Amino acid sequence: MSRRQRQALVARLRSVPRPETQPTPAEMRGSFAAAMTRPAPEGVATRRTVLGGRPALDLEPAGAADRGRLLYLHGGGYVIGSSDTHAGLAGELAARTGLRATSVDYRLAPEHPFPAAVDDGLAAYRDLLAAGADPREIVVAGDSAGGGLSIATLLAAREAGLPQPAAVVVFSPWVDLTLSGVSMRTKEDADPIFTEADVRAYADLYIGSGDRDHPLASPVFADLAGLPPVLVQVGADEVLLDDAVRLAARAGAADVEATLEIGPGLPHVYQTEYGRLDEADAALDRAARFLAGHLGALADTGHVRER
Question: What's the pLDDT score for residue 307?
């Protein structure tokens, strides 16, 4: 069944028509929202809120732990996406961990180029701490650009002298805006979603003529020492494969506990296919166990749900 699921997914992704001309950011956002939005899962209550001065969405599963928080940063190349488009993915992770999650609508490019997104991620994390959250009971997750932003946020927090959270999970993280990874070219034919030109267009909108190897724009070039344990999940059939591989290697070299999972035959952020693809559900379960396992006090007292 899983093989047929993968084949059906790839066929569906490849069938999506590509625009003949470069759409505007507004058009890109509308198309992405229409194609990708999935609601929060049943049993997860949502509430509009504000975190770090930005609109955000709280996602609280039934029977959520009294302690512990998940900060989620959505993907979309720093140009598209929102807490609404990712309510399903963030909600699934919240439900599987039993933690209350907050997904932040950080500012998007090109209206708000780098480092606006990093500033907003840091402000959100700082707000959680200011509200009394114990950093040992905070976990962070993000996908694609949101995965890169998750790492950049923790780097910015480190530079600001803030304590690190308990753990971070990133799905298909975009952590190299210079596009120097070999897979940007070797995996282009296998990737059913992106080409190198697609990824470069997002980088152009986000950072323009700025420094693309800045460690907060491209965390794969950063010193990752002092970051919390990280789980990196990526598909084998995506141009961002090398971003994920190098991020995990850099983290490990900096004495950070790093776990890398490469899904054979799988595309970019395949976790969004939960409920339709066995590998997506299994990956989310593993991610939830990873996060829960690093919330030691919570896991030991049974506050975090087992699945």
Answer: 46
Neighbouring C-beta atoms of residue 168, cutoff 10 Å: 29
Residue linked to tokens 């308990």: 166
Active-site positions read 144, 238, 268
Given the structure tokens 């991620």, which residue do they identify? 121
With beta carbons less than 8 A apart as the criterion, state whether 120 and 107 touch. Answer: yes
Alpha helices in the chain (DSSP H): 2-14, 25-36, 87-97, 116-130, 145-159, 183-186, 196-207, 241-253, 278-294, 296-300
The pLDDT tens digits of the residues spanning 98-119 come to: 999 999 999 999 999 999 999 9
Enclosing H/E stretch for 37: none
Rounded to an integer, what distance in angstroms lies between the CA atom of residue 221 and that of residue 225?
12
State the pairing for strand pair 167-171/230-235: parallel
Quote the CA–CA distance of 268 and 156 in Å, as a whole number: 26
Per-residue pLDDT, 20: 77
Q: What is the pTM of this model?
A: 0.96
pLDDT higher than 60, residue 303: no
For residue 163, which amino acid is it?
A: P
Q: From the CB of residue 63, how many other CB atoms can be counted at a distance below 10 Å?
A: 10
pLDDT per position as a tens digit, 8-42: 898 899 988 888 788 999 999 999 999 999 999 99
Q: Distances from the Cα of 253 to the Cαs of 174, 222, 300, in angstroms?
A: 19, 12, 30
The answer to whether 234 and 170 have CB atoms below 8 angstroms apart is no
